[in-house]
Every structure is written in C-alpha cells, then in structure tokens.
Amino acid sequence: MVDLRVVVASDKFKGTLSSDEVAVAVGIGVRRVRPEASVDSVPVADGGDGTLAAAVASGFELVPVTASGPTGEPVRSGFVRRGEVAVVELADVSGLIRLPGARPAPMTATSRGTGELVAAAIDSGCRRVILGIGGSACTDGGAGLIRALGGRLLDGNGADLAEGGAALTAAASLDLTALHERLAGVEIVVACDVDNPLTGSDGAAATYGGQKGASPTQIEQLDAALTHWADIVARETARDLRDTAGAGAAGGVGFAALALLGAELRPGIDLMLDLAGFYQQLTGVDLVITGEGALDEQTLHGKAAAGVAAAAGAAGIPVVAVCGTNRLDPGQLRAAGIAAAYALTDLEPDVRRCIADPAPLLRGLGERIAAEHLPIAGSPCADQE
User: Fold this and answer.
1) CATH at 327
2) Which residue range forms the structural domain that includes residue 341?
3) Do residues 87 and 52 lie in contact, with contact meaning Cβ atoms separated by under 8 Å?
4) pLDDT tens profile 198-245
5) Strands (E) located in the chain
6) 268, 294, 315 — which closes off a domain?
7) Tens digits of residue pLDDT in 19-71
8) pTM of the predicted model as reported, rounded to 2 decimal places
C-alpha cells in the first residue's frame, strides 16, 4: 500500500468557514476514497482578516486586548504570540468589520487601535511584530498607529490633532521622541499585498476611499490631507517615502510603518507560510490542496492560493485548489501553478446553498480530488516514483 501524504493549506472561505474548517471537510472527503492517506492542515492567510485565526491554528497563543475601534469605541481584539514574535491583524481592530452599525466614517476613522495592539505586544516583551494590514476602515496615513505608539502630531498652536485623515491638514509638527524609545530593539514587519503609493491617482484615498464610504469630494480632501502629512514626515525624517510601493496600503498605514517605524514590507502569504512552518511540512508530500472563497484575478496577485501554489511548486509538489467559485480559465490556473480547480458551484449551482452549507460540498470535492489526483498502487502514476 502506497503511503500517501496530503497537505491542505487553504485560506478561509469568507463568511462561511475558517481555513481549518475547510481543511477538515476536504480531508474527510479525501480519506473516504483513500483511507490510508495522511491529511495535514496548514491554515493560511494573507495578512488580512483571518490572520489571527490562522496563526492560532498554527500554534500561536491569543492574547486578548481591548483597544480603540476605528471610530474610538472600545473593541475586544488582541494579538497572538509565540515566544518573542507577535502577530497583529489590523482588520480585527481598525477594519471595516469594526464600524458600529457598519456606518462608514471616512474622514474620522483611525488606525489608533492597531497601534495600541502593537504597543501591547511590545510591552509584553515581543521583539518582532508582524503587522497584517488589509480591510481597514481608515484613511489616516497611519497617524493613529503612530500616536498610539508614542508619537505626537501637533497643530500650529502645539495642540494634539483630532483623529482621522481629515485632521491631518492641520498638522504642523511631529514629535517622535517617545515612539523611538518604545521601538528600541523592536523589528516591525508588515504583511502587505498591494503596491499603491500613498497619494495621487493610484494612492490610498483615490483607490480605496470609495470602499470606505468617501464621496468624490471627500476623496480629494483626504488625498490633500495625506499629501500634507507626507510633507510633514519628510521634513521630520529627511526621507520621502510617499511613492514607495505599499505606502498606500490600509489607508496609509503602510506609509507610516515604512517611514516612521522602520518597517520592512513583505508579501503577506510569504510571511504567513513561514510562521505556519509550511515549508518544513512539504517533505514526502504527494499533493497540496489550497483554496479560498473565490479564485479570480486577485488570486493571481499575491493572494493565499497563489502563494501556496508557488511554494509547493518550487518543491516539485502538484497543487490543486478548492473554492466557492472559479473565475480563472485553465491557462490562468496553470500559470499560477494550480493543476486544477474544484468549485462548490460544480456540485451545487445555487450560490446561496453553497454559502449556507459548504462543508458537505467540500467533502464531495475532497472525494473527487482523491480519485483524480492521488496515485493508486500499481498505477502508472505510482510507478513513476
């Protein structure tokens, strides 16, 4: 009997199943066809929402923290840690999902809560903080993040600025003394999957402001405020990083992390695969099954499924994907290193049913994958080894 090893490294199916739940369902289906198979789960995320859950499933410990939500109200969030390494998920504290009543606040929403979580991680003894950014509700240039870590943004009268992007137009000076003291000996790494600059037609406000509820006029105002903020930071640091790829991520949090925290920006999926020990689990693996809610053009630009496929492909391991819906053609899948895609809608055309009860469908997809992609003893595929 052939020893079979399968690794399921899927992102969450947003709004339905966590990455770990996806793996459990697929694994049940695989073992129905190949009961001798060993199926291991490596939950993954790309730095956006779901990052904390994936890290906990990979062995990190959740440390609960109450922090400021995007409009200032307290929210129950936290960071995860393993030894001196912490992971903070911006989406869980400063994200759109934290807006009270889902009411946008494009001009006043703040990233302060994210900074409070980073501060809590540092104060607990963590010396490396991985900050996953994505899904933010704010366009404040990361000013809230900086203030929560000890920086001060002052107006012309020496008073502290109000929260939010619109208030940045009044910034006159920046005091980073306390921030530098807090960050001494701390490494900040940002998980970032967009390459937008801070300002301009491809910047944070122009590209993402509308998604956060900003009107065309407000987008112009926010871009002007971010431009002024970048001028203040450039004067203080003698470096102008507003046009750096990724500076516009999360409403400008990427910019603040680069310019004022000395952060390194890395693709989110690469970081999360490192943390999950994915590469170490590939030895002797026959098949990797990745997945996410939708395979589409965004998948091809650094999302979790493409990152998993690239890593497994580099190790010579075939990769297939499960998803809710698939909008990629076979050529696009092959270019991403994915041999085949199996969608819930292949089994159940009604998308509402797929969303309401995806686990049985994933079990069915696991059966199909096992039948079509796992070698049978004595078969030509198995004999090639």
Assistant:
1) 3.40.50.10350
2) 5-44+283-383
3) yes
4) 999 999 999 999 999 999 999 999 999 999 999 999 999 999 999 999
5) 5-10, 38-41, 61-68, 74-82, 85-89, 128-132, 152-154, 173-175, 187-191, 264-266, 287-295, 319-326, 340-343
6) 268
7) 889 999 999 999 999 999 999 999 888 888 888 988 898 889 999 999 999 99
8) 0.87
